Amino acid sequence: MSSPPYSLQSVALLGPLIKGNAQRLAQRLKSGITSPVDAYTLCGLFSFEVICQAGFAKDFSNDTNGAAAHKLLQAMDGSALTLLFDGALPFVARFDIGTKLPGVIGDSYRKRDYWREKSYEMVDHFLEKSADDEKYLLTPLATGVDGYLGRKLTHEELVEEAMGYMFAGSGTTSSTLTYLLYELSKPENAAIQERLRAEVLAIPDDDIVAIRNNAYINAVIKEAFRAHPTIISTIPRLLTEPLTLGQYVLPSGTVIGMQNWLHHHDASVFPEPEKFIPERWLNETSEMKSALTPFSIGKRNCIGQNLAWQELYWAVSEVMRSGSRFRVAEEMKDWEMEMEDRFNIAPRGRRLMLTVSPVD
Question: InterPro entries, from UniProt (predicted)?
Fold first, then answer.
C-alpha cells in the first residue's frame, strides 16, 4: 500500500518541493561565514522538513530559523527512549504514568506526547486541505483501502503512519548528508569538493536528470554511502533454504545477520577502505555494485530509497551552487564524528561544526 508513492515517477513530482528545502539548507549553511555553523543540525532539519512536506503538506518555509521544526525533531528523537522503557517497565504504559515521572524517563514520555500532539495537528490539516492531492505520500493511505486490513485506516492509524514517516524518513538521509559534508570539508579532501562544485555548476540549475546521471556526483554520494552506512546494526534474516558459506552449511530456519559495514569496508573489494575516494566508483565493478547495500536488498529493502536519492541530488546541487566553500571547524575533534549506532547512525559529538567562506 505504501510503495506507489515512492516510485521514481511519483517522487519526481516532489522535485520543486525538495529543491525549495535544499535551497533553504544552503542559505542556512551560509550563516557559517560569520561563525561556525552546525551542519549536523541543519541536515537534520532539511530531511525532517522534506518528509513532513512531502508526506502530509506541512510547510515549514515560514520557520526561517528552523525553531519550530527543530523543537519537533528533538521531541521525536527524544521519544525513541520510550520504546526501551515500554519494554523494560511495562507498568509505566499500563497505568499511563510516563509523563509524571522525573528525569530522563518522564522527559522522553513528555516528548512523545508533544510529538504525537503535533502529528495529530499536521494530519488533521492535511485531511482538511490536501488529502486529494496525489503527490503527497500520505494520500493513498488516507483515501485508499488497506490491502491487508481490507478497510480504510482509522484516524489514529493514519497518525501512527505519519509518525512512522517522520521517524523513518528523516534520520537516514540526514546522516548520509552530514557525513558527505564532513568528508568534503576535510582539508585533505579539498580537491574533491572543488571537482564536485565544478561538475554541478556545469549542469543547468533545474536539470535533475543531468544531476542524476552525472558520474562524479553519483560517485561522491556512493562513497558517502559506503564509508558511512546509516544503518550499521546487524539486520536479522531467517533462512528459507540451506545456505553454504565456505565449508559450512547453515540449515533452513537459521537466523543469520547482515551488517553492511563489513562489506562496505572489505579491502578486497574497496582498496584503502578507510579513505574517502569517490573516483573508485568511476570504474565500478560488479563486486563493488553487489557490496554496496545502503538500502538493504531483497523484498525488505528500503521503500523510500528513490526519495532519499532525490533529496541527496537536490541537496548536493543547491549546496554546491550556493557560492560557499566548506571546511571542518578547528574546534571539532576527531572523536566527535565517530559513528554511534542509534539504529540510524549519529556523530558521537552530536554536531558537525563547519566554517564557510565565499568561493573566489
Answer: Cyt_P450, Cyt_P450_CS, Cyt_P450_E_grp-I, Cyt_P450_sf, Cytochrome_P450_monoxygenase
User: Under 8 Å CB-to-CB from 138, ≥6 apart: which residues?
Assistant: 55, 56, 123, 126, 131, 158, 161, 162, 165
Res 27: pLDDT: 95
The type of residue at 173 is T
Q: Which tens digits make up the pLDDT trace of 223-248?
A: 999 999 998 888 888 999 999 989 99
The confidence score (pLDDT) of residue 160 equals 95
**Residue 96, domain member (yes or no):** no
Query: Is the residue at 150 inside a domain?
Result: yes
State the alpha helices, DSSP H only, in the chain.
8-12, 15-29, 39-56, 67-79, 81-88, 90-94, 103-129, 139-143, 155-168, 171-185, 190-201, 208-213, 215-227, 260-264, 286-291, 305-321
In a domain, residue 65? The reply is no
- How far, in Å, CA of 66 to CA of 24, rounded? 10
Burial of 191 (0-12, 13-18, 19+ CB in 10 A): exposed
For residue 23, give the CATH number of its domain. Answer: 1.10.630.10
- pLDDT, tens digit, 9 for 90 and up, residues 139-188: 999 999 988 999 999 999 999 999 999 988 888 899 999 999 999 999 99
For the chain, what is the domain count? Answer: 1
CA distance 305 to 169: 10
Q: What are phi and psi of 165, to 5 degrees?
A: -60, -45
Binding residues: 302
Q: Is 357 left (phi over 0), alpha (psi -120 to 50) or beta?
A: beta
User: Are 26 and 47 contacting, i.e. CB atoms less than 8 angstroms apart?
Assistant: no
| 253 within a domain of the structure (yes/no) | yes
Q: Report the percent of the chain where pLDDT is more than 70.
A: 99
Range of the domain at 158: 4-57+130-358
- Whether the predicted model's global pTM rises above the 0.85 cut: yes
